[in-house]
Amino acid sequence: MTLITTPxxxxxxxxxxxxxxETSRQISPQQRAEWLNAIAKALGxxxxxxxxxxxxxxxxxIARLQGEMKRTIFQLQLFAKEIQYGLHFEATIxxxxxxxxxxxxxxIRRMNVALGVVGVFGxxxxxxxxxxxxxxxxxxxxxxxxxxxxxxxxHLTLGLRTGEVVVEALKKVGAPDxxxxxxxxxxxxxxxxxxxxxxxxxxxxSLAGGRALYDRASRRTNPxxxxxxxxxxxxxxxxEKAWKIRQNDILTGYANAATMGMGxxxxxPGLLFVPRFEKDAVLPLLQQxxxxxxxxxxxxxxxxxxxxxxxxxVSAIANVDVLIEGNGAEAPSPTILCTTVSAIKAKPEILELxxxxxxxxxxxxxDESELAEIVALLxxxxxxxxxxxxxxxxxxFVDAVHEKCGxxxxxxxxxxxxxxYAQHHGGPYPSTTSSARTxxxxxxxxxxxxxxxxxxxxxxxxxxALQENNPWKxxxxxxxxxxxx
Amino acid sequence: MTLITTPxxxxxxxxxxxxxxETSRQISPQQRAEWLNAIAKALGxxxxxxxxxxxxxxxxxIARLQGEMKRTIFQLQLFAKEIQYGLHFEATIxxxxxxxxxxxxxxIRRMNVALGVVGVFGxxxxxxxxxxxxxxxxxxxxxxxxxxxxxxxxHLTLGLRTGEVVVEALKKVGAPDxxxxxxxxxxxxxxxxxxxxxxxxxxxxSLAGGRALYDRASRRTNPxxxxxxxxxxxxxxxxEKAWKIRQNDILTGYANAATMGMGxxxxxPGLLFVPRFEKDAVLPLLQQxxxxxxxxxxxxxxxxxxxxxxxxxVSAIANVDVLIEGNGAEAPSPTILCTTVSAIKAKPEILELxxxxxxxxxxxxxDESELAEIVALLxxxxxxxxxxxxxxxxxxFVDAVHEKCGxxxxxxxxxxxxxxYAQHHGGPYPSTTSSARTxxxxxxxxxxxxxxxxxxxxxxxxxxALQENNPWKxxxxxxxxxxxx
Lengths: 485, 485
Description:
Two copies of one chain form a homodimer. By secondary structure, the first copy, chain A, is α/β, with parallel strands linked by helices.
């Protein structure tokens, strides 16, 4: 069962996926929604079994895994609803217009169609929500694509079993064979990026791994879009006023967000910018917070190695001190480092070093105005967070921050990423390889579609989404104006 | 005036552009629309002067250039309207929801924002509509970007003068200095793709040139999106029945579409698939059509050289015959070549050789079913066209064709590309480098934007597009449903 996918098996899977895509590309969103809901139901049915597999392979606790399973099932159901609303088709109808300003306009109708077969790489840190049937897979299926999913080695048994559950669920409701399948092994992973029938890649992982695959996808004879969610440090900026009024609340929130899931979140706050403080003023509260928490081993030995290397690198930077030292146990307690804005301005490398695990850095500033200088030095981030008071006008600061990230939070913590219509989980490079797109929320579907226009077509020959009587009852733009059926 | 842009000048232009972008990124769509309309007005004011410059440099006739100017002005005005409707912001508001299926949802609001400074490469074949103030420039400005435009060498004097007109018009209405500027010369062009502040490239041109720049953009430390519209052969498929009923009409339409603008259109029909015919049955009509046309020199000596090389290459393919031989004059008459589907199936290279100029190939088939085999061999195209009768059911053929192109026409000719809401001018690689996106029509604006989400923000700190009372009166999605203000 855990054998590596062979090149022959992989070729067969791609052929089957392409055929499944072609068979099903014109089905109604109602039909496709049934398939997504069937997967959701099957995951629910097998939840206990899958959660137990996940617990063994990831060391994540049951409550967290149950929450993640709930999220994964909800995501399938939400996307099933979303494709019936139909906004992702961006169906647009321009009727013939003899008086069109540049000269008579023919009847022309455009919609988004699925790309074809899509490759998805699962993440190590979310065994359900960003893995086999996570955000990338569900958005590609919702778009109408077939999916080949590369299971992450960190939870291989779970991944393969989840794959079986999904395939069985799709079979039961009559979806074509091959619409979804999993592969594993490095060779198959590279073949996934290279195969001419693969039309796009969804990826969640490290900057180094992601960039290598992005380069591979871009070098193809026919380059394909690579939607990689890579790394992020997620700075949190605390104003002088907020620190004065809410120091303890902020420290509690920080202690929680920085160590949630053992700090193994791409949205972990890696830098907390606060006014200069005395150690004694913050240490007891942080220590107390950590003393109430249970720690667990990191997701995998590989990840642990990477975390320790990054921690050493950041610790070795001049003027970086240890505020709280982790115990280095198998289930390690968190490390909080400490430095100053002046030190960063002198040598900004700390802004580029993500420590994926239970560690974060508190950065002290002398004057709030220094924060704008830090923002200017930032690389692209998934999130930036402001802790400020309601009567503070930070408009120009927010303006500067929005250049650097995909989500800005006001008095919150970035670690929760709700799946909704407005969610944006993305950001300028290197946080992602495609800043326009999101990997969380209903907006994620559009990544796996492209547009096709039909000019002066007989109604009966048009795809249903563009036929005059709107058989799918989707939302469309007609002669410039949005219209419900 | 025609001096090459120096590296120092270029740096100054980027700095000014970035500053102009930052100054203007939060202005209202109404204000931005005024700027676009001011450019439109200035072009109208200088139309005669610019058209005369264009005529001298491109050999295109006055009527064509007047039409193109009309299109260019209309495009600016349409985009000015479009940004006030506001769909390009994709403003999406999810209010707090304690009962959200995966757990309580915070208030989260997303919108598209401008990318920053964008580089645009003008095309040789449309001195107005795809040049200095063509589709790429206007969509980037509409998105809220600043634009640096690389003028095409084939109409340098016109390009520089158009740049002056645009800059002056923007200055008059108070747009920030540097929001738009032009450069020329190869060194500056490469610097444009490389500069860290450039956030995206719009390009229309050859496959070789476009791919080289795409690779350059992808290799950057921070890769940027490269929206390249490259090459296309635009096959036209004629059914047996249509050929029987409308042979003469089809030949007339073909003769016209293949030679319009001296065949220097990216949407020129390069291949016409028809049932096997006797030469004498088609030759007289084509010859008569051509005899009524006026020919002109090609756009530039370079382009002429490229056209002749491509024509030689295609002519030298086994089983490619000459049906009508062009006269090779300075203003050359068109060449129509002739081959068979069997020959293409044996050696499909003709499907990959664009002849940019007055030449096209008629391809004879023995049985209509062979057309599906040709579609399977096609590379990505901007357009594919079907000439068929209303009672023919070609659903599965259309299904196959839609995999290969961005626009499908039924009983039309691909050479007219209207600027409208539903237009899609794009297609799978190599017709473009980004099949999801269009370079013509209002959809083109989205290429130069990325999303940002704001979580639990005080209303007053939100961008106007996301404030509760919708001060810009744009269309938005609220708690899942689209709503007018």
